[in-house]
């Protein structure tokens, strides 16, 4: 088993801590968590215990993350902010925070992705620190070469290590000028280093020396006066350390730090983006700025198709072939770039052959191990892509891929919010319908005070009861949309008979069959909507027949009526949300709810003619439900 993730949550809101812990449980990651409500308590916990990640609510203090990072520089700090505090979060990213999460948008997937990204970034920074320290240690432990020169700079003595550094036999160095082994550009500094005879003390400089094979050697040179008896400074002792390896490593670290800085700039740009268009435009502009190129574009694969679409572009001239909105993945270079994940570089197009473009790069955008698109970069001047630049572009494309996936998760969350709002619309619609019915009955009572008041009062009571039931059921539908509910055995006869009681004036025929199905208490909504629609739209004298039969482990239910039926042209759309039809049209939500519930139970529903080929003779709604044993049959 992997070691559990040690997490410290510092927030004044118990809801924040509960939200994060619940999301962590759903990720399946092993973890141990501690929670502090005050910032100073969080700092004390960090001094006393070891943690892998800190989730911090900075309040209104953008410097809070910096104080945590200053105390524990190796631990990622992820901010917990609200949508209204994004400016604060962006400022904090420049002052020590590694990432942030918007509390209203936290999902298990987004939380796991953010934690992994922050930990990976810290590991990379730690690895770079170890590499830099290693090379400093190596440079400090190298054996120095030793030279002794006279006042004219002529070598009088050379150690074996010195001869090894310069690539000459040790016996060939005495009698030659030290300056003859120094790179021409560094010769003046070397002459000054060994020419200050009147000054005491050690003098140092970094010089480039030339080996016997012409190769340059980066050297740290230290010169000290030599005294011999009473003679004043007859020469200089020179210690030479070959620091070529150290310089190479430092240059690699410098380039890697520059790459990390460039990647961080892209990450910050992506993190500050409000939507996909802003994200792609921002990271494209930042990448072009880092490379010094004039134009480019971003393509993303159209899901399920063999092409990619241009979703962001800047700086490309009108009519340029690189501005194609759709590209076929079977043609170069996209067959290799997107099809196989192989970067494509052109460093010098012949003049006039590339629509004014002289250098071009197309880099695959990857996310979770697969190619999802490509980023194109173009320059009007030739450009040699160094290995470091190619590595940087690959890293940036991976960050773009991660940002795109995160944005898609965010957009998915927004769509979920839209769906929740839709259920609120459902609630409002059905309450209004029930209240309208209640008001109608009340008006009839007022006009018919001498008529059958008891009957009308009963109808009013039934309408209000139906309104209350709708409120309860719609609330349950909203809960089901957010949670997975386990169906239970339901007595189908009891459900249907209870619904029939809600329509005392309707002509409804049903013969109980003793069938049980796997469903829940929302099943009655299916029959309320189907029977209610038939009674409402069927007209005077409409008859409704409900029947059931078992077939291959399912119960097939039919609800038929003798009303005006549904035209063939409307049948494919009858279950759509807000679909309207018929002379007494409603908001078109009832049949949509029916389809959602039936499919939730694992069934399918369709609408047909009661008399095949004769839509005008009435409609027949037929659907399936999973059959199951009655509750009493599951004991003993």
For the structure shown, list the relevant keywords.
636 residues; alpha+beta; six-stranded antiparallel β-sheet; five-stranded parallel β-sheet; 23 strands; 42% helix; 25% strand
Verbal overview:
42% of the residues lie in helices and 25% in strands. The chain contains 15 helices and 23 strands. The chain has helices spanning 14-27, 39-48, 64-71, 86-93, 108-141, 160-166, 187-195, 244-271, 276-291, 334-340, 387-447, 453-482, 492-501, 523-537, 590-600; strands at 5-10, 31-36, 53-56, 77-81, 99-102, 145-150, 155-158, 203-210, 216-228, 231-242, 295-301, 307-314, 326-328, 344-346, 359-367, 370-379, 488-491, 507-510, 516-519, 543-551, 554-561, 605-611, 614-626. The strands form five sheets. Strands 13-12-11-16-15-14 form a six-stranded antiparallel beta sheet. The protein has a five-stranded parallel beta sheet with strand order 2-1-3-4-5, with helices on both faces. A five-stranded antiparallel beta sheet has the order 7-6-10-9-8, sandwiched between helices. α1 (14-27) crosses α5 (108-141), α8 packs antiparallel against α9 and α11 (387-447) runs antiparallel to α12. Residues 135-142 and 581-587 have low confidence and may be disordered.
């Amino acid at each position: 088993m992997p070691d559990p993730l040690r997490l410290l949550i510092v927030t004044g809101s118990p809801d924040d801590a509960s939200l994060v812990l619940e999301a962590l449980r759903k990720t399946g990651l092993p973890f141990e968590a501690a929670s502090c409500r005050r910032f100073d308590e969080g700092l004390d916990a960090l001094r006393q215990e070891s943690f892998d990640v800190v989730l911090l609510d900075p309040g209104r203090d953008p410097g809070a993350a910096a104080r945590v990072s200053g105390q524990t520089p190796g631990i990622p700090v992820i901010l917990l902010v609200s949508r209204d505090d994004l400016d604060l979060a962006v400022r904090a990213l420049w002052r020590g925070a590694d990432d942030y999460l918007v509390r209203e948008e936290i999902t298990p997937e987004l939380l796991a992705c953010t934690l992994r990204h922050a930990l990976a970034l810290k590991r990379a920074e730690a690895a770079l620190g170890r590499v830099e320290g290693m090379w400093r240690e190596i440079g400090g432990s190298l054996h120095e070469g030793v030279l002794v020169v006279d006042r004219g700079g002529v070598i009088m003595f050379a150690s074996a290590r010195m001869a090894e550094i310069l690539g000459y036999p040790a016996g060939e160095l005495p009698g030659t000028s030290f300056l003859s082994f120094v790179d021409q550009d560094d010769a003046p500094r070397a002459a000054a280093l060994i020419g200050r005879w009147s000054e005491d003390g050690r003098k140092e400089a970094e010089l480039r020396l030339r080996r016997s094979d012409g190769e340059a050697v980066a050297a740290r040179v230290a010169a000290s006066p030599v005294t011999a008896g009473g003679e004043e400074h007859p020469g200089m002792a020179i210690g030479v350390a070959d620091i070529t390896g150290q310089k190479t490593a430092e240059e690699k670290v410098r380039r890697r730090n520059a790459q990390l800085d460039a990647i961080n700039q892209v990450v910050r740009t992506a993190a500050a983006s409000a939507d996909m268009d802003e994200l792609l435009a921002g990271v494209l502009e930042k990448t072009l700025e880092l490379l010094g190129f004039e134009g480019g574009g971003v393509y993303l694969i159209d899901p399920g198709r063999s092409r990619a679409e241009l979703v962001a572009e800047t700086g490309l001239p009108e009519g340029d072939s690189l501005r194609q909105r759709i590209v076929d993945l079977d043609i170069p270079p996209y067959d290799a770039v997107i099809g196989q994940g192989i970067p494509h570089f052109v460093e010098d197009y012949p003049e006039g052959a590339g629509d004014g473009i002289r250098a071009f790069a197309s880099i695959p955008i990857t996310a979770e191990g697969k190619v999802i698109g490509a980023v194109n970069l173009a320059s009007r001047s030739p450009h040699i892509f160094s290995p470091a630049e190619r590595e940087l572009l690959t890293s940036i494309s991976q960050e773009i891929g991660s940002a795109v996936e995160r944005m898609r998760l965010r957009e998915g969350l927004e769509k979920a919010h839209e769906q929740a709002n839709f259920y609120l619309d459902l609630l409002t619609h059905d309450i209004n319908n029930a209240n309208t019915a209640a008001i109608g009955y009340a008006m009839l009572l007022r006009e018919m005070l001498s008529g059958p008041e008891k009957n009308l009062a009963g109808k009013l009571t039934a309408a209000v009861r139906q309104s209350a039931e709708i409120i309860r059921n719609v609330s349950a539908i909203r809960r089901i949309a957010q949670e997975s509910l386990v169906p239970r055995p339901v007595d189908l006869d009891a459900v249907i008979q209870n619904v029939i009681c809600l329509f005392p004036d309707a002509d409804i025929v049903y013969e109980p069959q003793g069938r049980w199905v796997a469903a829940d208490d929302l099943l009655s909504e299916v029959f309320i909507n189907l029977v209610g629609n038939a009674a409402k739209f069927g007209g005077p004298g409409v008859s409704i027949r409900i029947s059931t039969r078992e077939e291959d482990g399912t119960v097939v239910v039919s609800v038929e009526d003798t009303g005006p039926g549904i035209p063939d042209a409307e049948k494919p759309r009858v279950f759509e949300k807000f679909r309207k039809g018929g002379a007494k049209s409603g908001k078109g939500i009832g049949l949509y709810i029916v389809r959602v519930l039936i499919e939730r139970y694992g069934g399918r529903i369709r609408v047909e003619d009661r008399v095949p080929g004769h839509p005008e003779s009435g409609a027949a709604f037929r659907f399936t439900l999973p059959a199951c044993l009655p509750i009493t049959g599951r004991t003993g």
